[in-house]
From TrEMBL:
Coiled coil: none annotated. V-ATPase is a heteromultimeric enzyme made up of two complexes: the ATP-hydrolytic V1 complex and the proton translocation V0 complex. The V1 complex consists of three catalytic AB heterodimers that form a heterohexamer, three peripheral stalks each consisting of EG heterodimers, one central rotor including subunits D and F, and the regulatory subunits C and H. The proton translocation complex V0 consists of the proton transport subunit a, a ring of proteolipid subunits c9c'', rotary subunit d, subunits e and f, and two accessory subunits. It comes from Lepisosteus oculatus. Pfam families: V-ATPase_C (PF03223). This is V-type proton ATPase subunit C. Keywords: Hydrogen ion transport, Ion transport, Transport. GO terms for cellular component: vacuolar proton-transporting V-type ATPase, V1 domain. Subunit of the V1 complex of vacuolar(H+)-ATPase (V-ATPase), a multisubunit enzyme composed of a peripheral complex (V1) that hydrolyzes ATP and a membrane integral complex (V0) that translocates protons. V-ATPase is responsible for acidifying and maintaining the pH of intracellular compartments and in some cell types, is targeted to the plasma membrane, where it is responsible for acidifying the extracellular environment. Subunit C is necessary for the assembly of the catalytic sector of the enzyme and is likely to have a specific function in its catalytic activity. The keyword Ion transport applies. GO terms for molecular function: proton-transporting ATPase activity, rotational mechanism.
C-alpha cells in the first residue's frame, strides 16, 4: 500500500506503554508496518506563532505535493516508457520513495535546526517555487519541439488524404515547367481502382491518355498521378469528386520538400539533445522536492504535537504503513489505545459546535483523532 499514516503521541508513562502495545498488536495482527519517525529538537517559538504557522504549513504541504506530482507526470511524458522505467527514476536521495520515507533523517545542512520554524518553512517555499518556475520554462521549450515533431510524424503516417508526401513523390512523377500541362495527385479507394482506370481519361476532354500511374498504396486506397491541361483542372476536380476520387492539393516543389525533410531531422535531433539534460534535471529536482515535502510533514507533526500536547516537547512520531484490508481495524486499535488523550478532542468538538474554529489544529480541513495524524501517499502518479 502506497499510503502511510504519520502520527504522534505524547510520551508520558501511559502513552509509552500504549505505544509499545500498539507496536506489538499491529505487528502481530499484520495491521501495519511501523517505523520510528525521528524529528530533531526544533525551536518552538510562541504559541501565536505556532497557531499561524500551522495554517501556513498546511498550505505549503498541499503546494509542495502539487509540484511533486507535476514533476512526476512530466517525467512520465518525457520518458515515454513503461511504468517500471518511470518509477525507477522517481527517487529521493538515490533510493526509492518508500525507503527514504521509512528511513527518514532530517537534513541538517539544508534545514538548520537552529533556524526558527517559520524560516525553515520559507526556505522550503522558496526552494519549491524556484523548481516550479524552472519546470515551466523547461516544459515549454521541450514541449514545443516535441509537439512540432509529433505533428510532422502524424502527417507522415496518416492516410493518403492527409499525410505528407515528402517521402512518397519525386520529380519524375510530375510534368514540370510546362506552360500548358500539369500533374495532379488523386486518391482512389481500393474498391474503385478499375473504375478509375476506365474513366479517368473521360473526366475531362483535356486529360492526357495513359498518363495515370499508382505511386503509393495504403490499406484504404492508392495515390495516382494524372496529367492534363491546366485549364481543365477545375472541371476535372468536380468530375473526380462526383466519382468518389479525391484530388489532393499539392504542387511539387523540390526545395520545399527538402526543407520539410531537414526540419523533421532537425526536430528529432533537438528532442534527442534536450532529452538527457532534461531527464537529469527532473530526477534531481524531483528528489529535492520530495525530500522537502517530507520535511514539511515533519514540521507539521512537530507544530501540531506542541499545540496538542503542550510543553516541554516530549512526543514520539511514528510512521505506519497500513495493510489495505485492515486499515479500518488499525484505526479502531489506535483510537482504543489513545482514547485517554481524548480530552483535547472532546473540548475541541464542543468549540467547533459553538462555531469557534481552531486554526492551529486544522479541524475544519482534515480528519481529527485523539492523536496527531497526517497521511503521506507516495503513489504520486497513476500509470
Amino acid at each position: 500500500m502506497a499510503e502511510f499514516w504519520l502520527i504522534s503521541v505524547p510520551l508520558d508513562k501511559t502513552s509509552q506503554k500504549s505505544l509499545e502495545r500498539m507496536q506489538a498488536v499491529t505487528t502481530k495482527a499484520n495491521l501495519s508496518n511501523n517505523f520510528k519517525f525521528t524529528i530533531p529538537d526544533l525551536k518552538v517559538g510562541t504559541l501565536d506563532l505556532l497557531i499561524g504557522l500551522s495554517d501556513e504549513l498546511g498550505k505549503l504541504d498541499t503546494y509542495v505535493e502539487g509540484v511533486i506530482k507535476k514533476l512526476a507526470h512530466y517525467m512520465s511524458d518525457v520518458i515515454e516508457e513503461s511504468k517500471d522505467k518511470i518509477h525507477e527514476n522517481l527517487l529521493a536521495n538515490g533510493v526509492d520513495l518508500v525507503t527514504y520515507l521509512t528511513q527518514f533523517q532530517w537534513d541538517m545542512a539544508k534545514y538548520p535546526t537552529k533556524q526558527p520554524l517559520k524560516n525553515l518553512a520559507e526556505i522550503i517555499s522558496r526552494q519549491i517555487s524556484q523548481i516550479e518556475a524552472e519546470l515551466k520554462s523547461r516544459n515549454i521549450a521541450y514541449n514545443n519541439v516535441k509537439a512540432s515533431l509529433q505533428g510532422m510524424e502524424r502527417k507522415a503516417i496518416g492516410n493518403l488524404l492527409t499525410r505528407t508526401l515528402t517521402d512518397i513523390v519525386n520529380k519524375d512523377d510530375f510534368v514540370l515547367d510546362s506552360e500548358y500541362l500539369t500533374t495532379l495527385l488523386v486518391v482512389v479507394p481500393k474498391a474503385n481502382y478499375s473504375i478509375w482506370q476506365k474513366t479517368y481519361e473521360s473526366l475531362s476532354e483535356f486529360v492526357v491518355p495513359r498518363s495515370t500511374k499508382k505511386i503509393m498504396e495504403d490499406s484504404e486506397g492508392g495515390l495516382f498521378t494524372v496529367t492534363l491541361f491546366k485549364k481543365a483542372v477545375s472541371d476535372f476536380r468536380i468530375k473526380a469528386r462526383e466519382n468518389k476520387f479525391t484530388v489532393r492539393e499539392f504542387s511539387f516543389n523540390e526545395t520545399e520538400l527538402q526543407a520539410e525533410k531537414e526540419e523533421m531531422t532537425r526536430l528529432a535531433a533537438d528532442k534527442k539533445q534536450q532529452f538527457g539534460p532534461l531527464l537529469r534535471w527532473l530526477k534531481v529536482n524531483f528528489s529535492e522536492a520530495f525530500t522537502a515535502w517530507i520535511h514539511v510533514k515533519a514540521l507539521r507533526v512537530f507544530v501540531e504535537s506542541v499545540l496538542r500536547y503542550g510543553l516541554p516537547v516530549n512526543f514520539q512520531a511514528i510512521l505506519l504503513q497500513p495493510s489495505k484490508k485492515n486499515s479500518k481495524r488499525l484505526r479502531e486499535i489506535l483510537n482504543s489505545l489513545y482514547k485517554h488523550l481524548d480530552g483535547v478532542a472532546a473540548s475541541s468538538s464542543l468549540l467547533l459546535q459553538a462555531g469557534v474554529d481552531l486554526p492551529g489544529l486544522g479541524l475544519s480541513n482534515q480528519e481529527y483523532y485523539c492523536y496527531v495524524y497526517f497521511t503521506i501517499d507516495v503513489n504520486l502518479i497513476d500509470l
